[in-house]
Every structure is written in C-alpha cells, then in structure tokens.
Amino acid sequence: MLTEQQIYGIYVPVVTPFNAAGEVDLDSYQRNVKNIINNSIQGLVVNGTTGESPTVTVNEMQLLVNTSRELLQSTSIPLVVGTGTNDTASTVARTEIAANLGADCALVVVPYYSRPSQEGIIAHFRKAAEVGIPIMAYDIPSRTGTAMTLDTARTILEMNNVVGLKDCSGSSKMVTELVRTGSKPVLGGDDSLFYEMLSSGAAGGMLATANVYPAECIRIYEAFKSGQFDLAKENFEQLLPIIRLLFKESNPAPIKWMLSQNGLIDSDTLRLPMTSISTALQQELSSYVQDNAIEATA
Ligand SMILES: O=C(O)C1=N[C@H](C(=O)O)C[C@H](O)C1
User: Fold this and answer.
1) Cα–Cα 20 to 30 A to 294, which of 33, 88, 89, 111?
2) What is the position in ligand 1's atom list of the atom closest to the CA of 107?
3) Which SMART domains does the UniProt entry name for this protein (predicted)?
4) Which of 166, 184, 221, 256 is catalytic?
C-alpha cells in the first residue's frame, strides 16, 4: 500500500498500446514497461489519462494490473491504478477491483463532464476513500471541465486514505498554497511546468514524457533533490522543447507515435475518438529528435 512517504520523484503514467485492430497489445505493453522500470522511477501508473482510461474496459484494466504486478514483482516500485470515472458508483467499483488485484493506490480524477459542485467533488472522493485503498486525488480542469478549489483540495487531502494529490491545475498556485500551510505530498502533472512545480514544493512529477524520456526526467528530479537547482533547471530547459511538441496535440497521441518510432510499442493506434498525430507533427518530432540529442549535463 502506498504511503505518503513514497510519494516523491518520477511516477510514470504508462500508455496502453493497441494493435491495428484496436485490441490491447500486451507484448508491447510489457516491452514499454520493462524499459521504463529499468530506470530508477518511483512509481508506475496504469490506466491514467496517458493510458487512455476512458476507453479501457474493466476487464482490460484487470489484465493491465495483473501484467504490471508481474513485471514489478522483483522491484519495490508501487503500482498506481487509474480508477476514476465521471460516475461515483463506477469509480468505487473500479477502486474495489483495483484493491482486490493488489494495487498500491488508486488514482481518482475529479469527475468530468457532469460539472459537479465542490460539495459533489468532495462527496465523490469521500466514497472512493471509503474503499480503504490509498487514494491519490487528481485535479486536471483542462480535461474535466471543473477545478477543485484550494479549500476542496485541502478537505480531500485531510480524508483518511487520501495520500496525495496529482496537480495538473495548470499553474503552481495550488501546490504553493498547499505546501505553505502543510499538506500531504503533491506530484506535478503538467510536464511543461515540472521545474516550477518542484520549485513550488511538489514532491515530484507524474509525467507522460517519462514514457519516452525516463532517464531525463529522473535526472532533473535527482539534481533538484540534491540541491543542484541550476543543473536541474538546465536539464529541464533542454527537455522543454520536446515536451512542448509531445503536448502539441492531445496526449498520449504524440507519445505513442514516439514510442512506436523507437520500437517500444508496435503501433501508435489510439481508440476513437482519439486519433494519431498529424503528418505535420510527425515531421516536427522527427526533425527535432534528429537535430537535438538530449545530453546529460553534469
Ligand atoms: O496520464 C497522466 O497521468 C498524465 N496526463 C496528463 C494529460 O494527459 O493531460 C499529462 C501528465 O503528463 C500526466
């Protein structure tokens, strides 16, 4: 079970590879996860936004969780499973399934589409927290349409079983305030704000970019943690142009394309309504990668 003390560093929300027919491609999944866990990451996240959770069925989620547990069994890397939907009852049911399968934590997003009140958001998290497994709350208003207020975040973070927050609110305001007043740990989830989030008190990042650049993300975090702030910033700024390209079209389409180019997954297929990246972005990514090797700065 994930503890607050284990929430730091780089958590990687892995992609869910699909074959050309749109079925989960387990071989590719295993290949990509093995490559990621060969780096010293702090956590693996299955069925997050990057894992295309809105189109992954409960049976597929179970398959991915079981496969991930096998891959992680000789490591101490915790397994976080995205179980949040826009419906409280199905969120609770998925969280119970994840708990029964041995997940260390459930990642629960603010319910999307319905635009609940702050009271409704709090009640949703209270129900998820009652399942008993550690919960990481996930705020991403650019996707869900509703943001947690600071007071709501505080109330949720005070609940038993809620161990931390993944903050994709689009700025460092929330983390700054939470950390200033003492809070459970926060992971930054906006890749392009990673350095700013660390500087504002985030304990680490949950970064889709780390599917493609795990070592580079870890290097930024390690430099920051050891007090080498200029080095961390330099390494972050080196990664920033590619981060911007990876988010130029909807995540995880660019990440999947890069992984398929690197041979880590067989196909960049996404499930509709998500589609593969444009030819223009393919060209931008290819020429950026060709012209700019990301080198370690020591
Ligand atoms: O899947 C995730 O976790 C993340 N999703 C965000 C998004 O797709 O908007 C980005 C972040 O890297 C982590």
Assistant:
1) 33
2) 3
3) DHDPS
4) 166
